[in-house]
Amino acid sequence: MSAKTEAKRAALRDSLVDAAEGLIAQNGLRGLKARDITARAGCALGALYNAVDGLDQLIVLVNSRTLTRLGEKALAEVPADGTGADKMRALGRVYAAFAVENPYLWSAVFTHRLPEGQSSPDWHRAEFMGLIEQVAAPLADLRPDLDGATLRLRAQTLFAAVHGVVQLSIHGFEVGAPRDVLFSEVDALVGAMMRGIR
Amino acid sequence: MSAKTEAKRAALRDSLVDAAEGLIAQNGLRGLKARDITARAGCALGALYNAVDGLDQLIVLVNSRTLTRLGEKALAEVPADGTGADKMRALGRVYAAFAVENPYLWSAVFTHRLPEGQSSPDWHRAEFMGLIEQVAAPLADLRPDLDGATLRLRAQTLFAAVHGVVQLSIHGFEVGAPRDVLFSEVDALVGAMMRGIR
DNA sequence: GAAAAAAATGAACGACGTTCAAAAATAATT
DNA sequence: AATTATTTTTGAACGTCGTTCATTTTTTTC
């Protein structure tokens, strides 16, 4: 019988993801060590490699959680009514707020890179696509003329534009907007894009 | 006499930056090893730490070269005439083209992070600011009403927006635009922003 | 309850960035 | 020019990292 075994393995994996999530939130991706994770999770060093493929996959699992939280937050906090443009502005605000509140975890989602050959698993890429769909919906209100593929492509671009502003601000680059004006700049950008996109 | 000594040290530093630049261009920042750099530069491992503070500072020196090349390319290839909007579109094209042609070096500029406490030297941050000035100039044509500080802030935001689209595309994220449509998407974004910004 | 199978452990491994005592090269002094 | 003093270069050694694997411990099976 492997039902109980499978359950224990899943429990261990969860506590490892918990530990990694907490450590990333505290110190960022750069300071993440396998030994710290297993110590926090209360298991042996080698156990990490029984539960998951390695540190990279564990980070992907943390990033998946972060994306899910972002999706649920964006979904929950953005009012369903309002015109397409208003909804888009609200999405931008929520996105910026999430990044400010979860700087290290949010940063990990977009800065972690797998070794040379490998690419993210399909289910993780699908999670990214879920974000894009949330942008595509209000965009469809504004541009009912666009077909599905073009709509999604344009939604990706709008997302990436806002993402760039938030990233350079959070990340502390001098090119980025100072953090206290991040919200107004994101709002100005989304506003300008919505006005110009028609 | 330390003139000749200083010259030799500078020559060594240059060849180390050469080696690191070549290796980053080939394999990216993740695969960069101190031993590979010194082997390529033809010096001992320890020599790296005589010439520069460490691997991090060496990467900053490479990034500085990349920023300079980007600035010179953007300056040289963008025609001086044309309206503000046209110039901005040209800047976007040149920026995207540079990133596509130098994916690893360009990526290193924006993904390399110093250890927890440290921040980039002032002269390096000034190089970033030089990029922003190139965006601020055509923006001033379109928005002569903005004062210097607001103009620069808005220029940062426009830069970051384009940067985000290019980064998510180059970086291979599924959220980014497929690379073959990167140029048209950047152009559409800049166009929409220029139309909406007035 | 003993034998077989599975899972957890942490010492050991190779590779990494960095350091530092020793060696080589250069400068200063007689 | 020979010798000493100083500086520069060297690469072996150090501590730490992610990862592996022989061993131990636990669980399952008969």
Describe this structure in words.
The structure is a homodimer of 198-residue chains. The first copy, chain A, is an all-alpha fold and 198 residues long. Helices cover 75% and strands 0% of the residues of chain A. In chain A, helix 1 crosses helix 4 (55-77), helix 4 (55-77) crosses helix 6 and helix 5 runs parallel beside helix 8. Chain A is elongated, with a radius of gyration of 19 Å. The model of chain A has no long low-confidence stretch (mean pLDDT 91). At the A-B interface, helix 7, helix 8 and helix 9 of A face helix 7, helix 8 and helix 9 of B. Chain A binds a DNA duplex (30 and 30 nucleotides) through residues 1-2, 4-5, 8-9, 33-35, 43-50, 54-55.
Percent strand of chain A equals: under 5%
Structural class of chain A: mainly alpha
Report the C-alpha radius of gyration of chain A, rounded.
19 Å
Oligomer: homodimer
Molecular shape of chain A = elongated
Average pLDDT for all residues of chain A: 91
Q: SSE order of chain A, as H and E?
A: HHHHHHHHH
Low-confidence stretches of chain A: none
Distance between the termini of chain A: 61 Å
Strand element count of chain A: 0
Biggest interface, chains and residues, is: A-B, 49 and 49 residues
What percentage of residues of chain A falls in helices of 4 or more residues?
Answer: over 70%
Q: How many strands, which pairing sense, and closed or not: the largest β-sheet of chain A?
A: none
> Helical stretch count of chain A?
9
